Amino acid sequence: MINKNDLKKFLKEAKINTYASGGEEGELRLKYGGKKFEYTKGDFCYQDIYYGFNPFVGEEIVFYQQQSIWGMNYYGKVIAEPVSAKEIYLFLREALKKVSEDKPFRGPDNFNNGDFKYTNNVEGKVDKFTGEEEIFYKKELVYILNYHGGLINK
């Protein structure tokens, strides 16, 4: 049985060190247009594979001792562009770097920087959860992402 606190600590570290730090330039390109981030520490390995840009869909999996133990699926898109998608995703990466160990799914509950505001509403715990994140620019909704996941049994 995996220690959930170790899993949450690893998830936070993995998320900060993959997309949040590297963005679209930091991934490995896969066959059929997929993009992959990977982070390994000790017995843990995190993989984030996604397809598309706007909209996009993806899946994160955590392996412990080479066995899948946790996963999350997500679907997101920019829905308005009073600013460029590039600026929206730059702000998103800032927010994702603030992921908490208590809720290691996406970003914090709220984060503001200039005219941008990030919100993240999640229900559940690392075992089973569902959530939605949104980005507003000057109070206009410009981005949305839905996600869900939890522990995986062998």
| SS-derived structural category | alpha+beta
Give the count of structural domains. 1
What is the rounded Rg? 15 Å
Please indicate the percent range of residues in DSSP E strands (runs of 2 or more).
over 45%
Number of helices: 3
What features would you describe in this structure?
The protein is α+β, with helices and mostly antiparallel strands. The chain has one domain (4-151). It contains three helices and nine strands; from the N terminus they run H-H-E-E-E-E-E-H-E-E-E-E. Strands 1-2-3-4-5-9-8-7-6 form a nine-stranded antiparallel β-sheet, covered by helices on one side. The longest helix has 13 residues, at 4-16. It starts with a helix and ends with a strand. The mean pLDDT is 94.
Question: What labels would you give this structure?
Answer:
154 residues; alpha+beta; 3 helices
